[in-house]
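Sync notes, pocket subgroup
Present: LS, DG
LS reminded everyone that the earlier model was apo-only. Rerun requested with pyridoxal-5'-phosphate included. Inputs:
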Amino acid sequence: MNDVMEEKGYFGEFGGSFVPPSLQGVLDRLTDEFEKYKDDPDFNAEYKECLRDHVGRENPLTFAKHLTEAYGGAKIYLKREDLNHTGAHKINNVIGQALLAKKMGAHRIIAETGAGQHGVAAATACAMFGMECIIYMGKLDMKRQALNVFRMELLGAKVVSVDQGQGRLKDAVDVALNDLVENYETTFYLLGSAVGPHPYPSIVKHFQAVSSEESKRQMYEKEGKLPDAVIAVTGGGSNAIGAFAHYIDEPSVRLIGVEPEEAATLSKGTPAVIHGFKCLLLQDEDGQPSPTYSIAAGLDYPGIGPEHSYLKTSGRAEYATVTKKEVMEAFELLSKKEGIIPALESAHAVAMAKKIAPGYDREAALIVNISGRGDKDVQQVFDMYQNGEF
Ligand SMILES: *Cc1c(COP(=O)(O)O)cnc(C)c1O
């Protein structure tokens, strides 16, 4: 898939690896090991077996009859990443990377987390494989996400509070990278989205691509053709790149990424380097990453994966924004019409379907990627109603 484009970790001008030499050596070794295993039949068989027996894949492609009637136009199909064990797509990536770590002889996994979702997924994979798990988390984030800290601890992980800097995600990343450089012989840094220096964006895409591998086959079974469009939300970009992967070389399929209006990286960003790679970035006048805010914690990141940056600037994919109000409407409508409470992140993709579907006739078919389930968000939505925000 796109092997030429991915050469040396560049997607057009985006991607690459902007890190100190000590870290570059570790990343070069990781690149070699990933190249060795990614097409290895035994490795892939073990990965697929884990997805089947631990995650519950494949998950369905569900025809959303009532949502289709409500929006009008194209048939809407939902790719059900919400039905995975732990309730979202993140598990596909953490299992893949944990398996890679095991093959590389690492027995210690480290990861960073902001909202806690990636930390919980990483802790889950480590429990499955019997590996030691250290999660670095900003002091402030730990306070805000106390329940996720407890989840990680239940799963056997050690959560380390990061006090330096502002006590946020960026500071946790810095500490995790220092740990990796010091302990690379025994330690694997498990990264949570399709971001970071090469080879991470390619690794994450490889493991998340299982979603579009399945949906392509499922759409042929149900409709006998390719979908007309695939719609997915983008935070760092991992569920979207997985939902797009097997359609990138199918020019008839529209690829539509959706961002919150308050974190419109692809819609409004300009090229810059952040966290060791080049991408479209929301910056202030001094070139500093702009603070973002989203009602969906998983979307609060001023950067975006390098491949999405390239898909945007090359015109292969479209990216658009939705408002908070549109997201909340979609969150309610999918719950009422289909009995599926989506994650607030995924509700962004549903909100975009409302704008896209009426432009097609009933013969057309859209795939909306439901990246996760909404159980985690119900308390927050309840509070927003109580406070009269909606
Ligand atoms: C983390 C998360 C996202 C955003 O991350 P991506 O890497 O862009 O996929 C979206 N949806 C859910 C449910 C998440 O947990």
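DG: Residues 88, 90, 117, 193, 233-240, 298-299, 343, 345-346, 371-372 surround pyridoxal-5'-phosphate (CB under 6 Å).
LS: The chain has two domains: 10-49+90-204, 56-88+210-386.
Action: DG to write up.
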